[in-house]
Amino acid sequence: MNIREAVKSDMPQVLELIKELAIFENEPNAVEVNVADLEREGYGENPLFTCFVAELENEIVGAALIYFRFSTWKGRTLHLEDLIVKESERGKGIGEKLYKQVMQFAYDRGLKRVAWDVLDWNTGAIRFYERSGANVLETWRVVHMDENALQNYIKKSSKK
């Protein structure tokens, strides 16, 4: 198995992994990005993300997508958006190797924190993260405002 930084031509396979993750997370229709989005946003003039892939016999079987953030308390940090391993390849250490690559990336750059979200029912992932030394925060809530809510809020607040 080979862990490497993804290239633009890997994005079709990465998108398939993203779709598989959406199914695993019980959101099969949630993926709106397409290959062109991934190619443009990851490999344009100002790339928004970095992606690592796990390759087994010339097939991409895992991916980790990361990007920089800025914390008012810590400074430059890293966000792990998704760590995905193809269902048929889980339990073989692929996720751990991708995870280590992400942590090495952050460590090599002197970053103060790596952050990510995990679903409360994904107990296997939670146990893995805790064993690695990560702190799974119980008192923080993830907040999202989707496109419709954003549009409604702007319309409502503009009338005031």
Automatic annotation (TrEMBL):
InterPro entries: Acyl_CoA_acyltransferase, Diverse_Substrate_AcTransf, GNAT_dom. PANTHER family: DIAMINE N-ACETYLTRANSFERASE, GH14572P-RELATED. This is GNAT family N-acetyltransferase. Residues 1-157 form the N-acetyltransferase domain. The keyword Transferase applies. Keywords: Acyltransferase, Transferase. It comes from the Bacteria.
